[in-house]
Design brief:
Shape: globular
CATH superfamily of the largest domain: P-loop containing nucleotide triphosphate hydrolases
Structural class: alpha/beta
Strand order of the largest sheet: 2-5-8-1-9
Distance between the termini: 35 Å
Order of helices and strands: HHEHEHEEEHEEEHEHHHHEHHEH
CATH class of the largest domain: Alpha Beta
Number of strands: 11
Length: 309
Amino acid sequence: MSAADDLKPLLAARDQINEILVGKLAEVHLSLVSVLAGGHLLLEDLPGVGKTTLAHALAASLDLGFGRVQFTSDLLPADLVGVSVFDPNARRFDFHSGPIFTQLLLADEINRGTPKLQSALLEAMAEGQVTVDGVSHTLPKPFIVIATQNPIEQSGTFALPESQLDRFLLSMSLGYPDATAEKMLLGARERRQAIAELKPKLSAEQLMALRGKAENLHASAAAIEYAYALISSTRSDKRVRIGLSPRAGIGLLRAAKAHALLAARTHVLPEDLQAVFVAVARHRLVLAADASGDGASISRDLLAHVPIP
């Protein structure tokens, strides 16, 4: 079977999701890049623009176990990861797993959770496991977190620490649909019903196999040089107080390989790095106090000015 044949189920999943999330072709494509690269995805936007719909449609189309947790200020780490309960008959503690034990977790309004809750989620995102009472419990594979974040100026939010933001491979904003797409939404059937009728287009095993193919794609010395130039540009720009880390550079290359695989290529081209750079960088940049613009606009500006080697 050719590489193009291997991709057919994933591309069918993409087409199916596009039928639900109308007018967001680029955003759906990037979400699949994140999943294919084995990364977590941060959606930063106002409520009601389709963030939850995207997560539901991804889980249904990729045949992944799905869990949703609404983050609030009174949610405890045990509510997320689980708790050990003493069994008096067996005279032992039994672990009762929490909702994090799933393949695709929607962490809704993640920045309403307290720092303790964020710490519990950080271990899961970084290590693929949780630790309760000194015992580590492995999470299912694949394990993907799609987190939604409200604007920080809204009430009841906590700013995510840089260490946690760095664990999200990609970040993006869905934004409002254009006029044509929104009119289609207004005239379409209810999204919840449409999602319930979605059929899986590939299995978790097929997804993991495609991840392996993406990871093994070739990146030439020139592609690596270009990736380094993009990363390095964030560290020398006066508008940026803290630039991208080496982990971000590794993530940039992983995402570019996934993007190349979705295009049925066997190697990374400059356009693959360009296609994912803003999504990799926008949430990681710590800007200077007098910087104008945000992480996304500065990332786009850097991308436009860094020459291809």
